[in-house]
Amino acid sequence: MRLYQGIRSLILTMFRKILFLWVRTDVSGNSAEALGLDPDKPVCYVLQYSSLSARLVLEQEVIRAGLPGATEALPVKNGPAHSFFFLYRRTGGLFKGRRQTPVPTHEFKALVHYGIEHPEQDVQIVPVSLFWGRSPDKEKSLVKLLLSDTWSVAGRLQKFLIILVHGRNTYVQFNRPLSLRQVIDEYRHNEGRANRKLARILRTHFRRVRQAVLGPDLSHRRTLVEGLVRTQAVKEAIRETAARDDIPPEKVRAKAYKYADEIAANMSIVTIRFLEVVLSWLWNRIYKGIAVNNIEVAKEVAQDNAVVYVPCHRSHIDYPLLSYVLYKNGLMPPHIAAGINLNMPVVGPILRRGGAFFMRRSFRDNPLYATVFNEYMHVMFSRGYSVEYFVEGGRSRTGRMLQPRPGMLSMTVRSFLRDHRKPIVFVPVYIGYEKVMEGRSYLGELRGKKKQKESIFGLAKAMRKLTHSFGRVSVNFGDAIPLAQVLDEVHDSWRQEAYDADYRPAWLPQVVNELAFRVASHINASVAVNPIGLTATVLLGTERLAMDEGQLIRLLDQFASLLRAYPYAETVTLPEGSGRDWVSYCEAMGLVARQPQKLGDIIALEGSNAILMTYYRNNIQHLFALPSLVASLFENKESLRREKIVFLSSVAYPYLQSELFLRYDKDQVEDVIHRWIDVLVAQGLLKALDDGRIGRPEEGTEATLRLRILSRFIIQTLERYHIALGILRKYGSGKISAAELEEQSALLAERMSILFGLNAPEFFDKSLFRNFIANLQENGVIDTDENGLITYGEGLEEVADDARLVLSVEKRQAIQQVTMLGA
């Protein structure tokens, strides 16, 4: 018997080595840490269908990863003679696939029987999914169709051909183990039902993984485009357009077809594989690595839901980067909403075949186009395709999260209301760059330079940057947001109402606004803190944008410690290393300058880098918002009662929350502020006095410097608020409109930025003033009369008086000189 097993093992080993002369694999989850294996319990791997090639691949990957062996006998009596089993056995002939109902294998049944007979024993069952290539579409070519690993189960001959064609693009996914004892525990007296329960759980698991990796079956693009024009909503839009514009219906129908053809993606597996190779080369050339965190969220929700990936938008690199990360981690690349400006010659067709669908910037005045686009989105969601779009609309030039635009979110909600059989889940994604490729062009645009249109020539010009290093990139996945859950919270009777393609319920804007805020705040709650952002935050908090190297290193370590003392969210990631490492890294990236000095080198921001670094500071500004707000209250006060600190911070919080998308609800914020006061006291930035007051440290100490720098992380935002309030009080109630207040505030802010050398381009951003004015109205501080002029009462005076606490004397005087207000 041993001789037979030895010969058999030798033959299988030889087959495995021959197979891997050709096969190349991409593997996910193949580590004991990722799987969470208990070293004291035996491990058994399970593959879905009986296959010699699948067995050989499993054995090879288990050996490579150093996992418990798959060829060793499982230590269970009468169980499998090796530590793996197939869930279903083959029932066809030599060249036939399975056309009958799959039949569980003998090893599967023996393992269940052993678990029932020995309740004290447990086995960790690790499901392993194997894909020979990952085809997201049905090609016209019969050969390509036959040789794609899709939802059908291949016979032996087809599997042999698939391995020949796709073997070098094989994907293997290990998943967290099931406990045999827990699964069958309730059926210990009914072995048949225990078999069926475990089989059902494993079958469901493999189906969900296949859904996530391959995506739903896709029809041919031409069929999809023709189907859009035949939908009832588009037919009605064609009739209305023809009647309104007095155009023959045939011409309008042709226009609708043209719109659909302009919009629709044409995802191709060949293009995706080509892009994978190109992008792998590109990332290795321009980046020092891609850190992916919390992707388990995406893997989990992709198995049963239509997923909407909603990343922040900082660079054109965002488009291919997220698709690349998803594909490399075994998930179906999404269909991506791209601006029509990217549909350029050469580039446009590649993007379209990589999953991009194109949309015009505005189509409010074109109801026919709007209907076609809405129907296309509805097809995407109702069929369960994953979709990606940027809620900000455009790239952020300041490094902050922009105010979300409601358009795509509204389309998504309306589509789900029409057909909610397939759940929709939003997955926020933070994409953080240590050095954004478009950084220098952003500086020009913030100074008033006209935005350059995308073109082939611009792309060729950008290719010259490929010789530069842009540091590391982080892709952090945030907590998922089920759309049904948001609807339940805002309008719990939504399931009882009937909806058609044109119906817009009165409560729709409330749902969209709530959804927009959650998406933005979840993105910010997944931020990746990197050495450049942290160094920029500290240096920009100094008066001269320079600091002794030793002092800078200490401050970096201390502010990183502050973030660890009270983490903003579990999904936030912090940089490895220490302040000394981070200063050296920033210097190597050419973002800070070193000025040698006998008493100690000075690290400084010089030239355009001083403005560029505000971009990276703004990436993480929200993490320090509340402790910085508390610190700013001591700018002109030596001590304050704790209750006064909490009150003043709570008054300012709604405005900071709206601008920075802070995650805490308004009923939570007082507890959070109390916690931050305790942390600041524990870290020595504040001190608890005998009379129950909170005081700042002694003047001249390093603790005072730390507190002052911390306050400057947010103080420019508070100064901007005071500018708007000062101008409003200058004109008086009922004397100025919101648009005029916005314009006047931006002009004064720009003047102050020149007078005081403020290097933050967003300081005089009109959109931030517009948002603040809207929040004043929402919070009942101001109102508008029938002429559109702003009115206010005593509440505004109280807010203005409280805001003055954080302003320096010089800045108060500068504002008063322009607004002509008394002290």
Structure, explained:
It catalyses: sn-glycerol 3-phosphate + an acyl-CoA = a 1-acyl-sn-glycero-3-phosphate + CoA. This is Glycerol-3-phosphate acyltransferase. Residues 307-434 form the Phospholipid/glycerol acyltransferase domain. By secondary structure, this protein is of the alpha/beta class. The chain contains 34 helices and 23 strands. It has 4 domains: 15-214, no CATH class; 268-524, Glycerol-3-phosphate (1)-acyltransferase, CATH 3.40.1130; 531-712, Arc Repressor Mutant, subunit A; 715-819, Orthogonal Bundle (Arc Repressor Mutant, subunit A), CATH 1.10.10. Helix content is 50%, strand content 12%. The protein is globular, with a radius of gyration of 30 Å.
Q: Can you tell me the CATH architecture of the largest domain?
A: 3-Layer(aba) Sandwich
Mean pLDDT: 84
The count of DSSP E runs of length 2 or more, i.e. the number of strands, is 23
* CATH class membership of the largest domain: Alpha Beta
Largest sheet: 8 strands, mixed
Shape: globular
Relative strand content: 5-15%
How far is it from the N-terminal to the C-terminal residue, by CA?
Answer: 99 Å
Which stretches of 5+ consecutive residues score pLDDT under 50?
93-100, 136-146
Count of alpha and pi helical runs: 34
Oligomeric composition of the shown chains: single chain
> Nearest-angstrom radius of gyration?
30 Å
The helix content, as a percent range, equals 40-55%
CATH topology of the largest domain: Glycerol-3-phosphate (1)-acyltransferase
Domain count, please report it.
4
Structural class designation: alpha/beta
Catalytic activity: sn-glycerol 3-phosphate + an acyl-CoA = a 1-acyl-sn-glycero-3-phosphate + CoA
InterPro entries: GPAT/DHAPAT (IPR022284), GPAT/DHAPAT_C (IPR045520), GPAT/DHAPAT_LPLAT (IPR041728), GPAT_PlsB (IPR028354), Plipid/glycerol_acylTrfase (IPR002123)
Organism: Marinobacter lutaoensis
Pathway: Lipid metabolism; Phospholipid metabolism; CDP-diacylglycerol biosynthesis; CDP-diacylglycerol from sn-glycerol 3-phosphate: step 1/3
